Amino acid sequence: MNIADSTAAPKWVTFQLLERCNLRCRMCYEWGETGAYHEHAKPAMLEPPLVMRTIDECLSAKPLFEFFGGEPLLYPGVFDLIERIRAGGCDVTFPTNGTLLEASAEDLVAAAPTRVWVSLDGPAEINDAQRGAGVFDRAIRGVAAVVRTRAARRKRLPELGVTFVVTPANYAHIESFFLGAIDLSLFACVSIELQSYATREQAMEYGRMLNEHFGVGATPCANAYIRDPACFAGIDTHELARQMQSVKRVCAEQGIAFHSQPRMFGAADLQHYFSSRWHAMTDWNDLALGNIHERSLLEIWRGARVKEVQALVRNQLFPICTACCRYYGGAGVLSTRRADHA
Ligand SMILES: C[S@@+](CC[C@H](N)C(=O)[O-])C[C@H]1O[C@@H](n2cnc3c(N)ncnc32)[C@H](O)[C@@H]1O
Ligand code: SF4
């Protein structure tokens, strides 16, 4: 492949495999209290042959593949997809709520994805108040099953990571979770992210902008993020910063990779974030860039609409961008839904 070809293909491909999920985590922008997916009469899902074709289309550019959901382990044929990607010499990672890990440990170790992120939000009681009764124990049993199966099969993969979303309900339990409630040595990496949210004004401005530039009529995905910043007022950001720093230090001592979103998490930055003063700090499915039911991923990637969006965001960010904790550390998305048009 020459340089022109390699830059004309994505280097990071994320499939929103399916919308379906077996949990209803309170803070989730998909299935939580304000989640956008409750409105969908039938949760969307990409057809496995279409995903396979798109993987094959992209493999030669050697991108990083990611799966997202919904719950990726509910996707029919997920292990076939992983095997195809790995056989093509690429890495693949995905998050999971962990509840299906125990049942899938054998298949998972055989398919050998590069890394699986297990989402847990605190010690058992705190996690389960946010993610559902019994979820902590199921996820921990799943982690143990993967570790056991890896050892029995003499396999190194998948690496396991643990990812934690900071909310008002769990911010004070970060240390007790990472340094007490789980066996940190089982994980290759840790990620601590802040609850993503947007103000009502931001979401409205975003809707106006998508309408003006792209004729998009409604922005339910963005609306799912709307929170009154007052709901974060109880977070002691000094304590939050101290606990994140403490976990980061222990990870460094134990050779565990530590990620945080945002990357910088001093008390002042955390305070700015949770009081919607994002401007003071050091994309979404509403805008479909194309539809792989209609055109191939590379056609879309090289097409006019992607160029238009790139040109726009080169000059100005979308007003909603600051709502996401990942902003501080994106891309448009291809739609899972047949009806969305380019
Ligand atoms: C939407 S879930 C999909 C994958 C899978 N169901 C899971 O829970 O890992 C992906 C990640 O988003 C996180 N998440 C959910 N709601 C969030 C929010 N409001 N802000 C930031 N992250 C959030 C979840 O904890 C999870 O780690
Ligand atoms: S398991 Fe994941 S997708 Fe399902 S509700 Fe929880 S955070 Fe959302």
In short:
By secondary structure, this protein is of the alpha/beta class. The chain has 13 helices and seven strands. The chain is 39% helix and 11% strand.
Would you list the SSEs in sequence order as H and E?
HEHEHEHEHHEHEHHHEHHH
Uncertain parts: none
Which ions and ligands are bound to the chains?
A: S-adenosylmethionine, iron/sulfur cluster
Helix content: 25-40%
Give the number of helices: 13
The N- and C-terminal alpha carbons lie at a distance of 28 Å
Q: Categorize the overall geometry.
A: globular
Strand content: 5-15%
Explain what you see.
- There is one protein chain.
- It is globular and about 50 Å long.
- Strand 3, helix 4 (101-111) and strand 4 (115-119) form a beta-alpha-beta unit.
- The longest helix is centred in the middle third of the chain and has 18 residues, at 135-152.
- The protein has helices at 3-7, 48-58, 78-87, 101-111, 124-131, 135-152, 174-181, 200-214, 220-223, 237-254, 267-274, 297-301, 304-315, and strands at 12-16, 64-68, 92-96, 115-119, 159-166, 189-194, 257-261.
- The protein has 13 helices and 7 strands.
- Strands 1-2-3-4-5-6-7 form a 7-stranded parallel β-sheet, covered by helices on one side.
- The protein is of the alpha/beta class.
- Helices cover 39% and strands 11% of the residues.
- The model has no long low-confidence stretch (mean pLDDT 91).
- Helix 2 (48-58) runs parallel beside helix 3 (78-87), helix 4 (101-111) runs parallel beside helix 6 (135-152) and helix 10 crosses helix 11.
- It binds S-adenosylmethionine (SAM) and iron/sulfur cluster (SF4).
- Iron/sulfur cluster binds at residues 21, 23-25, 28, 30-31, 69-71, 97, 131.
